[in-house]
Amino acid sequence: MSLAFIGLGSNLADPQNQILAALAKLKALEHCQVTKVSSLYFSRPMGPQDQPDYMNAVVAIETTLSPLALLDKLQQIENDAGRVRKEDRWGARVLDLDILLFDQQLINTVRLTVPHYGLKQREFVLLPLAEIAPALVLPDGESIVTLAENIEKNGLKVHSKLS
């Protein structure tokens, strides 16, 4: 079994329900078991500020899927939620599911970069990740807790516990 951490985000079409629905679909995925779920957080959008705030969470899953097979499953969940992929990388979205970490693997392909390229710069990833995996150390040796303690919070707020 491999341990993967997945970031969940939404700022359109009832974001809290989008996150809850995605979590239910993750829990139902074959060859995957959700083992930990962070709280739900409010965060300001990255990029253009003329869009609604995001809701974010992080989940830990154990899986026998390969990283690319897991990516395919996550993209299917996004598509089923109505996600439309556009050129605007920082625009509003119904649902965004990102593989943040996959064991201690370093992956750099056209389709997938792990650890996620923005992991260390995103408070809405670091704080929920530190919440559910405080002992986690990145492949480069950096501690999640140390990174989370030192990042600017940018108004990030805990909204509620998920289950």
Please, could you describe this protein's structure?
- The protein has a single domain, classed as 7,8-Dihydro-6-hydroxymethylpterin-pyrophosphokinase HPPK (Alpha-Beta Plaits).
- The chain is globular.
- Strands 1, 2, 3, 4, 5 and 8 form a 6-stranded antiparallel β-sheet that branches.
- 28% of the residues lie in helices and 27% in strands.
- β6 and β7 form a beta hairpin.
- With 163 residues, the chain is an alpha+beta fold.
CATH class: Alpha Beta
Largest sheet: 6 strands, antiparallel
- Counted up, domains total 1
Report the helical percentage.
25-40%
Q: Strand-residue fraction?
A: 25-35%
Number of distinct beta strands: 8
Mean pLDDT: 92
**CATH architecture annotation name:** 2-Layer Sandwich
Distance from first to last alpha carbon: 22 Å
The CATH topology name reads Alpha-Beta Plaits
**Low-confidence runs:** none
Total helical segments: 4
How is the secondary structure organized here?
Elements (H helix, E strand, L loop, with lengths): L1 E9 L4 H14 L3 E6 L2 E4 L10 E10 L3 H14 L15 E7 L4 E2 L4 E2 L8 H10 L11 H7 L6 E4 L3
Helix pairs in contact: 3-4
